[in-house]
Amino acid sequence: MREKTLTHLTDSGVHMVDVGDKPIVRRTATARGKINLKASTIDLIKKEEIKKGNVLTTAQIAAIGAVKSTHHLIPLCHSLKITGVEADFDVGVDVIEMEVSVRSDGKTGVEMEALTGVSIGLLTIWDMVKSVEKDENGQYPSTNISDIIVVRKEKK
Questions:
Q1: What is the predicted pLDDT for the residue at 5?
Q2: Residue 89, SS3 per DSSP
Q3: In whole angstroms, how far apart are CA 121 and each of 21, 33, 48, 83?
Q4: Which helix (H) or strand (E) holds 87?
Q5: pLDDT tens profile 70-83
Q6: In what order do the strands lie in the sheet with 95-106?
Q7: What ranges do the domains of the chain cover?
Q8: What is the pLDDT of residues 106-118, one digit of tens each?
Q9: N or C end of the chain, less CB within 10 A?
Q10: In terms of Cα–Cα distance, which of 57, 33, 63 is closest to 45?
Q11: Element (H, E) at 69
């Protein structure tokens, strides 16, 4: 009979960073991304004629909820006390750029929260407009999400 060997799981290299000794600091982060859509879809969004409702307001609400839920979605993120979130849009002819800014008074940064807010906000836009973005084969040749980045991170 072979001898079984046990692996000590705490040596796996995965752990949540201990920030207990760090000072509480005002932290802000801003992330940005964009979704490319058909010009006709952008027109429907501007006229508030998308069947599911107001696209940009729904995306704002989704982004704020995502910011607050980041620690549930990304395994090693800390649960943070978020003190403020702004989600704004710049609507072009065939693109919507979204920017999410997050503030917290805490011991760790909020860049993952800002990135999560932008990602979920843009996915919400896609979900709300997918019926008018599909081609005759049910594909999305004009639709894509890109350029999700942290544009600013500060501690004060």
A1: 62
A2: strand
A3: 34, 9, 17, 19
A4: strand 82-91
A5: 999 999 888 889 99
A6: 82-91, 95-106, 25-36, 144-155
A7: 24-155
A8: 888 899 999 999 9
A9: N
A10: 57
A11: helix 55-73
Which candidate in 18, 21, 127, 135 is catalytic? 127
127 a catalytic residue: yes
**For 83-136, where are the alpha helices, taking DSSP H only?**
111-133
Write the CATH number of the domain with boundaries 24-155. 3.30.70.640
Length of the chain (residues): 156
Bridge pairing between strands 95-106 and 25-36: antiparallel
Look-up of token digits 């990602």:
119
Q: Which residue matches tokens 């906000």?
A: 121
The answer to whether the CB of 101 falls within 8 A of the CB of 26 is no
Contact between 102 and 67 (Cβ < 8 Å): yes
Contact 148, 118 (CB under 8 A): yes
* Whole-number average pLDDT of the chain: 92
> Is the predicted pLDDT of residue 15 greater than 90, yes or no?
no
Record the pTM: 0.89
For residue 73, give the nearest of 13, 113, 121 by alpha carbon. Answer: 113
